[in-house]
Each structure stands twice: as C-alpha cells, then as structure tokens.
Amino acid sequence: MYDLVIIGSGPAGLAAAIYAKRACLNLLLLEKEPMGGGQIIYTEQVDNYPGLPGINGFELAQKLEQHARELSVPSQSAEVVRVEKEGDNWKIILDSGAEILTQTVLLATGASHRKLGVPGEAELTGAGVSYCATCDGAFFRDKTAAVVGGGDVALEDALYLAKGCKQVYLIHRRQELRAAKVLQEQVMAEGKITFIPDTVITEIKGNGKVEKAVLLNKKDGTASELPLDAVFIAVGMNPETDAVASVLTLDNGYVRAGEDGVTEQPGLFVAGDVRTKRLRQIVTAVSDGANAVTSITDYLAQR
C-alpha cells in the first residue's frame, strides 16, 4: 500500500515526486513512455523557464529526471489502463494486468496537441512548427508566421505573435471563426494579421526549418504556396484522462481542479496540463506538482 502513486513523469509529475520524496511519502512514479519529461523533450529550445534561459527541452527533462533520481524516487515503466476506488483507497490497473494499491493518486498525464497530420509537420516540429506561441513566439521576432485554427487560443496566439512578428496569417478551414467576438474584433483590427478563411494547410515545406506552407482553398479547390518562417498550430488539445473517465466528471476531457489539485474524488489529485487551467507552461506544471503534494500531505495527515 503506497501513500501516493504519481501517474506521468512530465514536469508536473517529476516536481510532485521531488516534493513527495522530501515529505517522506512512500510513493511510486509511473510512466508509459521510454523516458520522462513529457512534451518538453520534443522542444528544441525553452527560453521562458526562470533561471535557465535558452536551455534545450531534452536537457531540461534530463535535469528534472536526474533531480528525482538523486532523491531515489522509485519509478516503474508501465501504462495505466484504469483507476478505481478500492474502499477508502485507490486501485491502479496496469496494461500488464497488475494492480497497485495506494491511499492517494496524482494524475499528471498531461495533454497532447492535436496535429494537422500533414507532410512536413513532424519533421519540422521545433524548427518552425510549434504548438505554443507563448513558448516559441519570441524566436520569430520580425519574421512571418501563420497560426492555424479558429478558436480562442488561435486568435489569442495571432494577437500575441503580432506584437513581435512582421506579418501573421490566420488560417482557418471555415469562413466563420469560433472564437469570442471580442477576440475576432481585435484580430480584424490588427493591421499585421491577415485572415485566410476556407483554407487548410496540406504540406509544410523547408530544408531544416520552415520555409513555406502549401495551402488549399476548400471553396474553389485552388492550391498555393505561402512563404513562412513559422507555423503555429492551435487546433485543440487531447487531455490524457481515459484512465479516470469512469470516476471523475470531466470538463471537455480535462479534470476539474484548482491550483491545489483537489478533485471531486477524495484521494484523487491532479496536476499539470491535464487539469482545467488557463496557462499550460512548464512553470505552471511544476507549480501544480508542488501544490498538489501539499494537498496530498494534508489529506494523508487528516486520515
């Protein structure tokens, strides 16, 4: 019987493991991928994590893992299929069929960006293709960028990029945008932003970095090429919450919780990108992990 099992070893999970180990909790860290770090291992450069400007994402992930290893955080490579109540405790069922019992669970499984699924997207990710304008926008100051999407995040990204980019194209597959009207008005009033409706990207081209995108107009079927330095994709996220879908009420797939990580289920906590929150960054994930462990230690003390 563990005090705590952490599912996921991205920044939120690793930060939680560090804090839990320092709190002398009997814990186990579970991760389904070959290495921890979450999404940041695919990030070429992290320029907004305090104290480590310009660090490579893979290197930062290694530093987080090394910190956990130096504290002798026990970990296991396994995929969680389901989380269930077991009396006043919790049972974690792995894909191998094994079961783990614990007093508390911290879900730190993160969320993955939805992809366009077009040629060149994967190859140029981190070299001009990005899913986070807040993270990578500063690298394209005085350059030309495109944002793909029509929701609030896409328009917010376009407005954010317009502060530093020379030109921003907002590409949306429909004529009508889905974002809040106030954001639409701001975008249309911004001289640096050009809206391209009824259009999809069919390919992203470049030799080692983004150089252009192939566009397809869905109304007339015409194709064209648009010279670009960056493509920011904002077509939604896929939170990794399948394992807890049967025990929690989800909000568009995300776990409802505040900064304390407390969910509607006693003993089940959440941290990082998988919870409902406005800003999903490394620094907020690490903060979530620390806050959640504080809530967990309080919960265990009360028990």
Textual characterization of the structure:
The protein is α/β, with parallel strands linked by helices and 303 residues long. The protein has 6 helices and 19 strands. The protein has helices at 11-22, 57-70, 133-136, 152-162, 181-189, 282-302; strands at 2-7, 27-31, 75-77, 80-86, 89-94, 99-107, 111-113, 129-130, 144-148, 167-171, 193-196, 199-205, 212-217, 223-227, 230-233, 237-239, 250-251, 254-255, 268-270. The strands form 5 sheets. Strands 1, 2, 3, 4, 5, 6 and 19 form a 7-stranded mixed sheet that branches. Strands 8-15-9-10-11 form a 5-stranded parallel sheet.
Helix/strand layout:
Elements: E1 2-7, H1 11-22, E2 27-31, H2 57-70, E3 75-77, E4 80-86, E5 89-94, E6 99-107, E7 111-113, E8 129-130, H3 133-136, E9 144-148, H4 152-162, E10 167-171, H5 181-189, E11 193-196, E12 199-205, E13 212-217, E14 223-227, E15 230-233, E16 237-239, E17 250-251, E18 254-255, E19 268-270, H6 282-302
Parallel strand pairs: 1-2, 1-6, 2-3, 6-19, 8-15, 9-10, 9-15, 10-11
Antiparallel strand pairs: 4-5, 5-6, 7-16, 12-13, 13-14, 17-18
